[in-house]
Design a protein that fits this description.
The chain is an alpha+beta fold and about 850 residues long. It is globular.
Length: about 850
C-alpha cells in the first residue's frame, strides 16, 4: 500500500512538473513574442552625442539622428530620422531661419535652449522634447515612454495629452471645430458628394493649433507622405502625428495669441498675393454652361435682373471631347470674341483645367508633351496612363522644372483667348478607380521619389505652374482656384471645398471647412453656393446665398442633371433676397479688399472662427455655436439651417450691434433669437470701422467718389487699416497703393485717419462718416473745423416685396445714424467726436 501511495504520489509530481514545464515554455514563447513585438517599435532611445553650433543642435541617439533648429524666437524646428540627416527640401516652407538671440546649456541629463519667447528642454535618456513658456509652464511635451518611434518606415511622434486640451485646424477637415477625440488622415482624395464626417477629402494641410490652460501653440508637420493625426481617438493618453515614410520633421510655434501663431506659420509657408479685384465679386457657374449663346444669356440675365456679378465659369463641356487646351468648335466657335463681348459687359471668364492629357495621336498637347518627355512614369520608364474625362491620359510631372515650364506654355493659350481665371480640378490626382499605383515615379526637383511621397504635393505644384504661366502671359494678376492643396498653396491659389451636397448640414459644414482653412493659412476660400450635388430647397438656396455674401470666394455652382441654380430659378422672393445680399457684398468690397490685404501682410484670414480671438472661451467650441464666425475684424455671422424658426446665438466678450437695426447686445451670454429666411443674423462688434462704397453692378464699374465710413460707438480702442490699389496690376508690389490706418480712440473721443502711405490715388475724394450708437450728438470737428451732424436712418438691405396678397412682407430695418461728409485728403485727418 505504501509503495502504491508512493507511486501515485510520484505520478502526480511528474504530471505537475510536466505541466509546469509546458506552461513555462508558453511563458518563454510569449516573452519572446512580446520582445519581438517591442523590437518592431524602434524608439529613438537615449542621446549618445550632442553637437551645438549656433542656432542648431545635432544629436546622435541610440536608434536615430536628430537636428533641432531655432528658426526664430517663437519657432523651433525638430527633425529626426533613422538615418543620418542630409540636406532637405520643402515645397511648403519658403522661410529661412532668422538670427535669434538664445542661450544653450547642457548637462549629463538634458539640453536647454532659451529664447525671448520660449524654452526647449531636451532630455537625454531617452531623447524627449519639452516646450515651456519663459516662466516654465508646459506648453507641449512628448509623451513619456513613447516620444518618437518607428514601425518599419512609419514614424510617429507622441505628445502628452494635456488636461482639457483642444485642437483646431488641419485645413480642409470635416467634423467639429474642436478636433479632440478624433483621428484624421492626409491623402488628397476625390470624394464626390462626400459625407459630413468623411475623411480624407481633397486637401492636405498638416498644421494644427493645440489649446490648454490659457496657452496655445501650433505644430506644422512638413512631411508629404500619407500622414495621420490622432487627437485622443481611441486613447486617453496622447495626441500624435505620423507619416508612412520620410522624416519626422515638424515646426513648433508658440505665441500667447493665436493670431500670432498663424502669422508665424504663414511666414514659414508664404501668404497670398493680392488677387484681382474682380475675383471678389459674385461668380456664376454650373456644370456646364454651353454653348456660347447660353453663357451670354446668363450674363445678360444677371445684368437685366440687376444682380451684380463679375465672373462666369466654364466647366469641362467647353472642351473638344474633354481634351485640355482645346475648345469645342460647335459650342464655342470664337472664344476670343466671346471673352471680349463678356468683358464689355463687365464679366471675366474662368475655365476649368484638369491635369490629364488624353493619349491620342495628333492631339497637339499629347504629341508635344510626349516629345518634351514631361509625363510621370512607371519605374520601368513607361508613361503612366490613367482614365479620366477624355479617356486614357498621361499626366505632367509638376514636381519637375521641365514639367512646370511645359504647362506654363500651354496655360498661356487660354490667356491669349481672353480667359482671366484658371480653375485647377482633379489634381489630387483623381483617376477612375482612385488608386494610382505607388510605383509611379516623380522627379521631385531632381530627387526622384514614388507616388507615395509626391501625391499630396501634386495639386500644389499644378497651381504653381498655372499661376506662373498665367502671370507671365497676362502681365497682371490672374485668378487661380484649386481643389487639391498642400501647405503653401495659398501663395498661388484660392481653394474651394469640392463636390458638396445641396443639404442643410453641408452648408454649415462648409462654413466650418472655410474657418478651418483660414486658421491653416488659406484665407481665400469658398464653397459651391447652393450645393453641387442634388437639388436644394428654396429656403436652403436663399440661406446659402446670404452666407455666400460673407465668405471670401462667392461662387454659385451646381452639377450636371440638377435643376438650374441661378438666383432667379427659385422664385421672385428668393431673387430679391439673393439680390439684397449680393448688393451688400458689393457695397462692402472696400472692407473685404482691405481685409484680404491684411492677409497678405499677416496671414490672418477673412473668415475667422470665433476661437481665433476668443481662444479660451469654452462656449465658442460648443457645437451649438461652432458655426459662428467673424468676417474680418468687425462682423460676426451666425449661420443657421434655413428651416429653423429660432436659434441660440453666443455673443463673445464686448458689445454687439445688430447689423440691420443697431440693437445692442452685451457679450458673454447666449441669446435665443427668432429667425426668418429673409435675413441672415449678422452683428457688428463695438468700436468697428467699416468702409463701404456705392452699389455697382461689377468691379469694372466705378463707384461714386464718396467712401462711406461706418463707425460703431464702443469702449475699446480699434484700428482698421484701409487699403486700395488698381485691383489688377502688380504695381502694388512696387509701392503703388493707397493705405492708411484709421484709429478710433473712445477714451478721448477721437477718430484719427493717419497720413496715407503709398503712391496710388484713392478713387474716393470724399468721406461720409456714419456714426452708429452716438445718440443725440449735434456736431463733430474735422481738423479743427466744426461739421453739423445730420440725423437719419440707414438700411443695409432693401425691403422684400409682398408677393402674396395674403402673405406678409418684411420692410427693411433701419439703423439710426448721424452723418457728415468731408474731403478725403492724403494728410492726417483728426476727427473729434
Amino acid at each position: 500500500m505504501r509503495q502504491g501511495r508512493f507511486l501515485r504520489s510520484n505520478s502526480i509530481v511528474y504530471m505537475y512538473t510536466k505541466a509546469l514545464l509546458k506552461h513555462s515554455g508558453w511563458l518563454l514563447l510569449l516573452s519572446c513574442l512580446s520582445a519581438q513585438a517591442q523590437n518592431q517599435v524602434k524608439k529613438i532611445g537615449k542621446v549618445n552625442t550632442v553637437n551645438i553650433s549656433g542656432q542648431q543642435i545635432k544629436i546622435n541617439a541610440e536608434n536615430a539622428f536628430a537636428e533641432i533648429t531655432v528658426y526664430s524666437p517663437s519657432v523651433i524646428r525638430v527633425r529626426m530620422d533613422q538615418h543620418p540627416l542630409a540636406a532637405d527640401f520643402s515645397y511648403a516652407v519658403i522661410a529661412k531661419p532668422e538670427t535669434t538671440r538664445l542661450q544653450t546649456t547642457q548637462n549629463s541629463s538634458e539640453i536647454n535652449i532659451t529664447t525671448d519667447s520660449l524654452q526647449l528642454r531636451i532630455t537625454k535618456n531617452p531623447f524627449s522634447v519639452h516646450f515651456l513658456t519663459p516662466s516654465g509652464e508646459v506648453i507641449n511635451e512628448d509623451e513619456e515612454g513613447l516620444t518618437t518611434s518607428w514601425i518599419g518606415e512609419e514614424v510617429t511622434t507622441y505628445k502628452k495629452m494635456q488636461e482639457g486640451e483642444r485642437f483646431i485646424g488641419l485645413g480642409e477637415k470635416t467634423g467639429n471645430l474642436d478636433r479632440k477625440g478624433e483621428g484624421y488622415t492626409n491623402w488628397n482624395s476625390d470624394k464626390f458628394g462626400y459625407a459630413t464626417n468623411q475623411d480624407p477629402i481633397y486637401a492636405t494641410i498638416p498644421f494644427y493649433v493645440g489649446i490648454h490652460h490659457h496657452l496655445n501653440y501650433g505644430i506644422f508637420f512638413d512631411n508629404t507622405f500619407q500622414s495621420d493625426f490622432n487627437f485622443g481617438a481611441s486613447n486617453n493618453r496622447f495626441s500624435s502625428f505620423s507619416a508612412r515614410g520620410g522624416e519626422m520633421n515638424y515646426y513648433f510655434i508658440y505665441h500667447p495669441q493665436m493670431a500670432n501663431i498663424i502669422t508665424s506659420y504663414t511666414a514659414l509657408t508664404g501668404r497670398i498675393h493680392m488677387p484681382p479685384l474682380w475675383s471678389l465679386g459674385y461668380q456664376q457657374n454650373r456644370y456646364s454652361y454651353y454653348p456660347d449663346t447660353e453663357v451670354l444669356r446668363i450674363a445678360q440675365t444677371l445684368r437685366e435682373k440687376k444682380i451684380p456679378a463679375d465672373g462666369i465659369t466654364l466647366d469641362i463641356h467647353y472642351m473638344d471631347a474633354y481634351k485640355l487646351f482645346t475648345w469645342n468648335k460647335e459650342r464655342f466657335p470664337h472664344p476670343s470674341q466671346l471673352t471680349r463681348q463678356l468683358e464689355s459687359m463687365g464679366f471675366k471668364i474662368t475655365v476649368i483645367v484638369d491635369p490629364g492629357i488624353k493619349v491620342e495621336d495628333g492631339y497637339a498637347a499629347y504629341e508635344n508633351g510626349k516629345k518634351e518627355n514631361i509625363f510621370i512614369k512607371y519605374s520601368d520608364g513607361q508613361n503612366y496612363t490613367g482614365q479620366v474625362w477624355p479617356g486614357w491620359c498621361h499626366f505632367p510631372d509638376f514636381t519637375s522644372v521641365k514639367g512646370r515650364d511645359w504647362w506654363k506654355g500651354q496655360i498661356k493659350s487660354y490667356m491669349r483667348d481672353g480667359v482671366r481665371g484658371i480653375w485647377n480640378d482633379m489634381n489630387e490626382i483623381a483617376t477612375w478607380g482612385q488608386k494610382m499605383p505607388n510605383n509611379v515615379l516623380f522627379d521631385f526637383e531632381g530627387h526622384p521619389v514614388t507616388h507615395q511621397q509626391a501625391h499630396n504635393v501634386y495639386g500644389l505644384e499644378m497651381v504653381r505652374a498655372s499661376y506662373d504661366g498665367a502671370r507671365e502671359e497676362l502681365k497682371k494678376r490672374p485668378f487661380l482656384l484649386t481643389r487639391a492643396a498642400y501647405a503653401g498653396s495659398q501663395r498661388y491659389s484660392a481653394i474651394w471645398t469640392g463636390d458638396n451636397r445641396a443639404e442643410e448640414d453641408h452648408m454649415l459644414l462648409g462654413v466650418r471647412l472655410l474657418n478651418s482653412l483660414g486658421v491653416s493659412g488659406m484665407p481665400f476660400s469658398g464653397m459651391d453656393i447652393g450645393g453641387f450635388t442634388g437639388n436644394g430647397t428654396v429656403s436652403l438656396y436663399a440661406r446659402w446665398m446670404q452666407i455666400g455674401a460673407f465668405i471670401p470666394y462667392y461662387r454659385n455652382h451646381t452639377g450636371v442633371n440638377t435643376k438650374s441654380s441661378e438666383p432667379w430659378a427659385y422664385g421672385e422672393e428668393v431673387l430679391e433676397i439673393s439680390r439684397n445680399y449680393v448688393n451688400l457684398r458689393y457695397r462692402l468690397l472696400p472692407y473685404l479688399y482691405s481685409t484680404l490685404n491684411e492677409a497678405t501682410r499677416t496671414g490672418i484670414p477673412v473668415m475667422r472662427t470665433l476661437a481665433l480671438n476668443n481662444t479660451f472661451d469654452a462656449n465658442v467650441y460648443d457645437t451649438r455655436f461652432q458655426n459662428q464666425y467673424g468676417y474680418g475684424s468687425s462682423f460676426m455671422i451666425a449661420p443657421f439651417e434655413s428651416t429653423k424658426e429660432f436659434g441660440s446665438i453666443y455673443f463673445p466678450e464686448g458689445k454687439w450691434y445688430n447689423l440691420y437695426n443697431d440693437a445692442l447686445t452685451n457679450g458673454l451670454q447666449e441669446v435665443i433669437t427668432p429667425l426668418n429666411i429673409k435675413t441672415l443674423p449678422v452683428y457688428v462688434k463695438e468700436s468697428s470701422i467699416i468702409p463701404m462704397q456705392s452699389l455697382v453692378q461689377s468691379t469694372a464699374e466705378q463707384p461714386t467718389d464718396t467712401l462711406f465710413l461706418h463707425l460703431y460707438k464702443g469702449d475699446q480702442q480699434n484700428t482698421f487699416v484701409y487699403y486700395e490699389d488698381d485691383g489688377e496690376s502688380f504695381d502694388n508690389e512696387k509701392g503703388v497703393f493707397y493705405q492708411r490706418a484709421i484709429t478710433y480712440r473712445p477714451a478721448d473721443k477721437k477718430m484719427i485717419l493717419e497720413k496715407v502711405s503709398g503712391s496710388y490715388a484713392s478713387k474716393f475724394h470724399h468721406i461720409k462718416l456714419l456714426l452708429h450708437g452716438f445718440g443725440e450728438q449735434k456736431s463733430i470737428t474735422v481738423n479743427g473745423s466744426p461739421l453739423t451732424l445730420e440725423s437719419t436712418g440707414y438700411s443695409f438691405l432693401s425691403p422684400i416685396s409682398r408677393f402674396d396678397p395674403q402673405g406678409f412682407s418684411i420692410p427693411a430695418e433701419r439703423c439710426p445714424v448721424l452723418q457728415a461728409t468731408f474731403e478725403n485728403g492724403n494728410q492726417l485727418i483728426n476727427v473729434d467726436l
